[in-house]
Amino acid sequence: MKLTYGISGHVLLNSHDRLNSITEAHLKQWLTETQVQARFGKLPTYVPRLSQVQSDLLAVTIQTDRTSSVAFGNVAKPFVLMSLVKPFLLLFLLARVGREAVFSRVGIEPSDQPFHSIAQLASDRGRPRNPMINSGAIFLASLLPGNTPTSRCESLRYWLNKSAGCDLTLDEEMLASVQPLGNETNRSIANLLKRAGYLNDIDLAIETYNQICCLSGTVVDLARLGLLIALPHPNVSSDDQHIVNSLMMTCGLYEASSQYSMRIGLPIKSGVSGGLIAIVPKVGSIAIYSPAIDEIGNSVGGLFLLEQLVHAHRLSLFQTD
Length: 321
Prior knowledge:
Elements: E1 4-5, E2 11-12, H1 15-20, H2 24-28, H3 31-38, E3 59-63, E4 69-73, E5 79-80, H4 86-96, H5 99-103, H6 118-123, H7 134-141, H8 149-164, E6 169-170, H9 172-178, H10 184-195, H11 202-213, E7 215-217, H12 219-227, H13 238-251, H14 257-263, E8 268-270, E9 275-280, E10 284-289, H15 300-313
Antiparallel strand pairs: 1-2, 3-4, 3-10, 5-7, 6-7, 8-9, 9-10
Helix pairs in contact: 3-15, 4-13, 7-10, 7-11, 8-11, 8-12, 10-11
């Protein structure tokens, strides 16, 4: 390893060395404070099975290549991806149908409204603001190959597992918990999309969306997924990685995205199940699971722990030394 020295004579590590320098001991030192911070969050109540999860669970995996990782906590505990699937849905469709098919119908603009805002979509005349909110992801789900929700979900699941070397499965119990809810907000979103000419079959789009959100894995699986947009990969173009990372940076934490772009300075995506994925481009990924979320839908403990790690190890993309 080539060492670079600053004016003071201290060794300056690059971001790869900084991420690799994080050990289990570093993760443990933030355990108590992360669990304290997580108590300020709440489990989501609108999906019954999500409200029954043990709220003090915590798991972290840092992956710097496909064989090297450090992990701590309840790393074997599976959880559903929920909105964490959105950047990987986008990545798959960019590879399969191309940028024109995607961005002719979905924008790239951040939103200052909640991820399921009907008012936002109505003011935008039925055009989804970006792929990281529900309207964008419901439309993108309609582009998946297959004639049924199950075949469409399976096409995405198979590609992700094969490409990332992870083991995502469909959580049938969580799906059964989601399906009876009526999904009135998402159905209203889908109706607006159909009236604007973006959807043909509302039921097919919503059920496909439900299924891909109920794909389940561990933080290890999530960290491996992160490598699809962090490191060179034969199935993924660097241009597509750039697009997904950029949209995660500007839109991945919904209306809190700009705040955390300054505070953390990495592409991040959250899910209401309490999962969080952060990308250090060309270096690796950080996956965290802490189920309690804030009012926006982001993991309270996850964001706290990520911010401590980024600051302590100088991982921000805007780090100057």
